[in-house]
Design goal:
about 400 residues; alpha+beta; Cathepsin D, subunit A, domain 1; 2 domains; six-stranded mixed β-barrel; six-stranded mixed β-sheet; 8 helices; disordered N terminus; binds 2-acetamido-2-deoxy-beta-D-glucopyranose; aspartyl protease
Length: about 400
């Protein structure tokens, strides 16, 4: 049988690997601070937090660096730029019929949104069912639909997704047209099957690997990162990958056995998630206090973040996470960020998760993922970490 031989050949040569380059946006916070619009942005963000209900995705924080990817939807293909987010599980894009400032993008955000024109696609199927997703920084809502999705060279016919016709104001500042969630199906709003689940049968292995390059200046060209679907990334990541089992199949959730910085250490097991959609690291309130003390950081009430002196920041202690018996160090070069705040001050990239008992205690966002490639193993419900190689 011809097809059989062909399949066998493909298997023997192995590895049909699907790769998707990601690009890092300009740092949004730095840009807003420099153009004097950060206070207005913070106020909008506070407004949308007041409306925060107890939705399934309470902790996401999009307001900084974005690792973006291009996907297409529809026939003929319409390209949109989305955030690749392991902290949520739905795909949504903006309806071309939505004409609000948030849907169009604020004129001074320097980004014009690519909206999805449903009537221009011959494969588009509208659904009457509504969707609404609450993220940490704001909500979006609209209705569900189905169409052909292409991402990372993979094609899904009839992918169900959200067509948003209402976006919270904060989205108007962000250089993105939507979000593609890479979390587990049980986290998906309206039980929509996430794109990753729909491509598993096309992959050699039911995994994907995320590599993020170090704080890349995009105007210098090059990649911001790479997502490899169906394989590990032997070019950008160390070959030693250490796995730990997931403790839930919602977020990519696992336990941190211990944490240390400088003379502080905490050896209580705490739950954590790996979230590419969060720029910084969310830490339990008590641990954040310890980090602040160990780095001698002070709180900047105007910009609502902790700062240290840029000049001496390279001598700050490593963060040391113990996960599954292995120690993972994150150096100051990764967690100190120059937002050009003035006065020789740099931000440390942490925020407080509060001390509530709901949800994970830690979020390991891009600050952590830049230092360690994350291998998201759907088949074996585990996550792996490998040292990341960087272009500089
Ligand atoms: C998406 O495609 C556009 C042009 O087609 C390109 O300028 C942009 O850099 C791409 N973005 C990403 C994240 O790959
Ligand atoms: C959407 O596409 C249709 C058909 O190509 C076109 O007539 C319409 O003007 C487009 N709508 C928008 C809002 O761009
Ligand atoms: C990025 O690199 C370009 C070219 O080297 C430089 O002109 C620009 O100032 C850099 N931007 C930042 C934010 O470092």
């Amino acid at each position: 049988m011809r097809t059989f031989i062909l399949l066998a050949l493909v298997a023997a040569c192995s590895a049909v690997v699907y790769k998707m380059e990601t690009k890092k946006s300009e740092n949004l916070r730095a840009k807003l601070i420099q153009t004097g619009r950060y206070q207005e942005f913070l106020a909008k963000q506070h407004e949308s937090r007041i409306n925060l209900n107890t939705g399934s995705q309470p902790f996401l924080d999009y307001y900084d660096d974005f690792y973006l990817g291009n996907i297409t939807l529809g026939t003929p293909a319409q390209q949109v730029t989305i955030v690749l987010d392991t902290g949520s599980s739905n795909l949504w894009v903006i309806d071309a019929a939505c004409k609000t400032q948030a849907c169009n993008g604020y004129p001074d955000s320097g980004y014009t949104k690519h909206k999805f024109n449903t009537t221009a696609s011959t494969t588009y199927v509208s659904e009457s069912k509504k969707f609404s997703i609450q993220y940490g920084s704001g909500s979006c809502s609209g209705h569900l639909a189905k169409d052909t999705l292409v991402f990372g060279g993979l094609t899904v016919a009839n992918q169900e997704f959200g067509v948003a016709n209402h976006l919270a104001e904060v989205f108007g500042y962000q250089p993105v047209d939507g979000i593609l969630g890479l979390g587990w199906p049980s986290l998906a709003v309206d039980k929509v099957t996430p794109p990753m689940q729909n491509v598993l049968s096309q992959l050699d292995q039911p995994i994907f690997t995320v590599w993020l390059d170090r704080k890349l200046n995009i105007s210098q060209g090059g990649l911001g990162g790479l997502i490899t679907y169906g394989a590990t990334d032997s070019v950008n990541c160390d070959s030693t990958i250490t796995y730990v089992p997931l403790t839930a199949k919602t977020y990519w959730q696992f336990n941190i056995d211990a944490f240390a910085i400088g003379t502080y250490s905490e050896s209580k097991s705490q739950s954590s998630i790996s979230d590419t959609g969060t720029s910084w690291v969310g830490a339990p309130a008590s641990i954040l206090s310890a980090i602040v003390k160990q780095t001698k950081a002070t709180f900047d009430w105007t910009n609502e973040l902790y700062t240290v002196d840029c000049a001496t920041s390279s001598s700050l202690p490593d963060l040391i996470f113990t996960i599954g018996g292995t120690k993972y160090n994150v150096q100051a070069v990764e967690y100190v960020l120059d937002l050009q705040l003035g006065g020789g001050k740099c931000a440390i990239t942490f925020f407080s998760m509060g001390s509530g008992s709901f949800g994970p205690q830690w979020i390991l966002g891009d600050t952590f993922i830049r230092q360690y490639c994350n291998v998201y193993d759907i088949g074996q419900a585990r996550i792996g970490f490998a040292k990341a190689h960087h272009s500089f």
